[in-house]
């Protein structure tokens, strides 16, 4: 459907009054885009350039994507936190005592706790948390997609803060044992890392699944598959952002022949500061998510 500018104004009144039923409700936000559906008098005719003239449906779909973009962007920092599972958490574990009884636990294997946490928490969420939340909120699913994502973002921030506290305790052990200038593990058990891995798993249960539901339900009907796939891009971008932050921190903290936060011998470094940096970034990301989530107006998901 192509309209003149006056027709677009009339369309908004008709939709808001209930006289006109449309597949995508007319949205008053980003109204400057509505001009893309205006036919100039010099362009009147049967043939129009699709790159200069859009239908009302195309414009409303673009508005939906623009509203979803800030929510999508907050997922990048979340997966930056998750990327620590396979990077700095393992580096931290290599500086801890991995002897548990008669077994030696490779630091990288602790990342399996993330998967175990997900497997355990999914049924707990469905059988216990959702019924309780349903009674409290009156919502069929207990939490909305945005609420679920927000809980996951908050838990992931707590996870990396716990990692920072563990590192502070490890550095204290290194100093008390006189191992600061020796590249050897401290006597502190590697099992102290278990809470941070488990919390990351809890965060993924809430955020990852909530994100998948959000992008499927809130995206335009004709773009559901594309938006669901686009949501997965945050996983790779989170890993890239983690690598960029690590590279930037290493560069800035090693200038002037300084040891830096993350030297080869972690007993001489300050890995805890790196974790606090990630925790601070995640906290700001959580606050940004809360702001945009409050501004976001959900559309009614159609059932196919």
Structure description:
The protein has 304 residues and is mainly alpha-helical. The chain folds into 2 domains: 1-54, no CATH class; 67-295, Growth Hormone, Chain: A, CATH 1.20.1250.20. 61% of the residues lie in helices and 1% in strands. It is built from 9 helices and 2 strands; from the N terminus they run H-H-H-E-E-H-H-H-H-H-H. The chain has helices at 5-17, 56-82, 88-94, 112-137, 145-176, 194-218, 224-231, 233-253, 271-295, and strands at residues 99-100, 103-104. It has a two-stranded antiparallel sheet with strand order 1-2. Strand 1 and strand 2 form a beta hairpin. Helix 2 (56-82) packs antiparallel against helix 6 (194-218). The protein is globular and about 80 Å long. The model is unreliable at 1-6 and 13-22 (pLDDT under 50).
Briefly summarize what is shown.
The protein is an all-alpha fold and 304 residues long. The chain has helices at 5-17, 56-82, 88-94, 112-137, 145-176, 194-218, 224-231, 233-253, 271-295, and strands at 99-100, 103-104.
Spell out the helices and strands N to C.
HHHEEHHHHHH
CATH class of the largest domain: Mainly Alpha
The CATH topology name of the largest domain reads Growth Hormone, Chain: A
Class by alpha and beta content: mainly alpha
N- and C-termini, Cα separation: 23 Å
Strand order, sheet with most strands: 1-2
């Amino acid at each position: 459907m192509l309209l003149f500018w006056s027709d677009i104004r009339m369309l908004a009144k008709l939709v808001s009054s209930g006289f006109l039923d449309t597949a995508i409700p007319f949205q008053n936000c980003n109204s400057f885009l509505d001009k893309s559906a205006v036919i100039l008098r010099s362009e009147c005719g049967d043939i129009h350039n699709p790159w200069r003239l859009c239908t009302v449906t195309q414009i409303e779909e673009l508005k939906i994507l623009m509203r979803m973009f800030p929510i999508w962007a907050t997922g990048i920092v979340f997966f930056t936190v998750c990327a620590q599972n396979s990077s700095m958490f393992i580096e931290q574990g290599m500086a801890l005592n991995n002897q548990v009884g008669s077994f030696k636990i490779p630091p990288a294997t602790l990342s399996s706790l993330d998967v175990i946490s997900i497997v355990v928490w999914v049924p707990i969420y469905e059988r216990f948390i959702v019924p309780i939340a349903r009674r409290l909120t009156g919502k069929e699913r207990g939490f909305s997609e945005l609420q679920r994502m927000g809980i996951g973002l908050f838990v992931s921030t707590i996870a990396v803060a716990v990692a920072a506290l563990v590192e502070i305790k490890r550095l204290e052990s290194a100093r008390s044992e006189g191992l600061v200038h020796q590249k050897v593990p401290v006597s502190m058990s590697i099992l102290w890392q278990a809470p941070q891995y488990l919390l990351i798993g809890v965060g993924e249960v809430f955020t990852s699944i909530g994100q998948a539901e959000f992008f499927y339900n809130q995206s335009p009907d004709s773009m559901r598959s594309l938006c669901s796939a686009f949501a997965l891009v945050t996983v790779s971008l989170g890993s890239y952002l983690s690598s960029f932050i690590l590279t930037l921190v290493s560069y800035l903290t090693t200038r002037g022949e300084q040891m830096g936060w993350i030297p080869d011998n972690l007993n001489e470094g300050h890995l805890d500061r790196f974790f606090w940096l990630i925790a601070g970034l995640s906290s700001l990301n959580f606050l940004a998510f809360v702001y945009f989530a409050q501004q976001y107006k959900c559309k009614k998901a159609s059932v196919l």
